[in-house]
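Below sits the subject:
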Amino acid sequence: MGGTVVSANDEFFADRENLINPHRPTFTLATFGHKGQVYDGWETRRRREPGHDHAIVRLGVPGVLRNIIVDTAFFTGNYPTEASVDGCFLPDYPSAEELEKATWFPVIPRSELEGDTENSFPVPSARLVTHVRLNIYPDGGVARLRVHGTPVIDPSLVPDVFDLAAAEHGGAVTDASDRFYGSPNQLLLPGLARTMGEGWETKRRRDNGNDWVEVKLAAPGLPQLIELDTSHFKGNCPGSAKVSALDGPVLLEPVKLQPDTRHRFRVTADRPVDAVRLDIFPDGGMARFRVYGTLPPQSRADLAARWNALQED
């Protein structure tokens, strides 16, 4: 989603940027660099004075947090014994120095960690967050930090026409017929898919049905253009596709699809749509799904009210 590790007080053994690598951690035994065993994670030196280590992460988009995973994969004799997570809301573009002086509030209290484990913590707070600070006690290594939640769009930054289905705007997959080869959530990610593995792909159907995915839009809007991107799907592209409002009206009648192609279709809606269903026939894969449109005044007002309410303490 475009997050970054803004700063860390120490990264002697392994770089802080590894915390947010999208792939799962890896480890090769007896692989030594000039600072020792190479770890796919963030690792600080052994602390010889009181205190603890920390790293600050800017989230890809502002949002309400639901769950945090502190993954200590492959860190066994060198993982932190405890961790906590703080959050803050600074909507502009603060520097690392400004973030160090920010007002932080607790998100996850100081909690015990297990080594070589995806330590999962539910987040009870419903406040809007732009940055998190991972604190480890007293030192050690963490392979990955995963911050799961619901993106909340800043209505002042929303253009007249934008992707209503995009995950970064608050669009979300609510259901799908099949997730065998690839998660349907990847359909809504920013940017172009780099490989077939970054899209949604279903198993081969051996019946008379078809596959589908349902998407809740960021807000009730008026779709104007739909993009069906089959990039990288060549021998497994769907034969055709259809897009409907979830409550019935068809936005895009069945259209034939070509392999490895970004298809764009003009559509019209006579009333706001808050969720859509993409049907593919009969099965196959798709890289991205976009629903470009506008927001009626009431939808914009509702987004602004939510944005403001979530900032309240």
Summary: The first strand starts at residue 4 and ends at 8. The helical segments are 96-100, 297-309. The mean pLDDT is 95. Residues 297-309 form the longest helix (13 residues).
